C-alpha cells in the first residue's frame, strides 16, 4: 500500500490556526482527489473534508465549514488542510487518504487547548 506523509500538526490555543500537508510520491491527487479524516481521543474516525478530481467543489463536514479549507498543489503532489479558528473539539489525529484509501498516511496530531 502506497503511503502518504502528513505534516504540520502541533499544539495550538483555541482560536489559532494550523496548516496540514499531505505529500504523495506521485500525482495521485489529480487522479483520485483526496480526503482528510480525523480521530479524536475516544472517538470514532470521521471524515473532515474532500478535494475532488474535477467538476465539483470541495466538501466539508458541517462542524468545520467556514473554518477549514482543503486545497491541492499538483506541482508538489500535496494536499493541504488549512484550519482556522480551531476549537478544543478539533483535537485529533488527522490523516489523509486517496484513491478509495489505497493510499493512506500515518497521521499527524493536532492538539487544541484553552
Task: Explain the overall architecture.
The chain is mainly beta and 114 residues long. The protein contains one helix and eleven strands, in the order E-E-E-H-E-E-E-E-E-E-E-E. Strands 1, 2, 3, 4, 5, 6, 7, 8, 9, 10 and 11 form an eleven-stranded mixed β-sheet that branches. The protein is globular, with a radius of gyration of 13 Å. The N and C termini lie far apart (38 Å).
Characteristics:
single chain; 114 residues; mainly beta; 1 helix; globular
What is this structure's SSE topology?
Layout: E1 3-7, E2 10-13, E3 18-23, H1 28-32, E4 34-39, E5 46-51, E6 59-60, E7 68-73, E8 78-83, E9 92-98, E10 103-105, E11 108-113
Parallel strand pairs: 1-10, 2-11
Antiparallel strand pairs: 1-3, 3-8, 4-5, 4-9, 5-6, 7-8, 9-10, 9-11
Helix tally? 1
Please outline the major beta sheet.
Answer: 11 strands, mixed
Distance, first to last CA: 38 Å
Uncertain stretches? none
The whole-number mean of residue pLDDT values reads 94
Shape: globular
Record field, number of beta strands:
11
What class do helices, strands and sheet pairing give? mainly beta
How do the SSEs run, as a string of H and E?
Answer: EEEHEEEEEEEE
Strand content: over 45%
Helix content: under 10%
Radius of gyration: 13 Å
Concise synopsis of the structure shown:
The protein is mainly beta and 114 residues long.
